[in-house]
Amino acid sequence: MESSDSKFPRMHVSLYVKNLAATVNFYNTFFGVSANKIRDKYAKYILNNPSLIISFIENPERVHSNFGHLGFQLETKQEMEEKLELARSKDIVSKEEIGTACCYAIQDKFWVNDPDGVQWEVYYFHEDVEFNDPHYESTEATACCTSVEEEKPSKSLIITDEMCVPGTSCC
Length: 171
Prior knowledge:
With 171 residues, the protein is α/β, with parallel strands linked by helices. The chain has three helices and eight strands.
């Protein structure tokens, strides 16, 4: 076993899909590169930045709707804005969230959905905060968060549990 400070060189994700051709078309657009390998009911992309291997296996019976989401954190706000503009030009953006309070962090992000409904979040992390959008836990939520300017108090406001009512936008 390697030491606890060792790094994994590349992440691998494998997803089941309903229609491999539609999936490959979407990911060619989203990633901006063609699949490295396409076989009968199988496709694989090897990305260098981020270091990711992602494969897709056509098997409609195994596609699940309660997966969650995948995402990419970008290094700069400018990089996120450039990726957003590119995704807009390709007409694949499903939602934009600028200044959101999601997962106890202020983030700018956008979302895309692949043909099977897998959500991808592309985001820039601003800073950690002590509140999370309650919308995130709603079963009706289509993405992680809502706008901090519209929904959240100033981060300088101290909020206690007694002040917050579930379902409101206070914490």
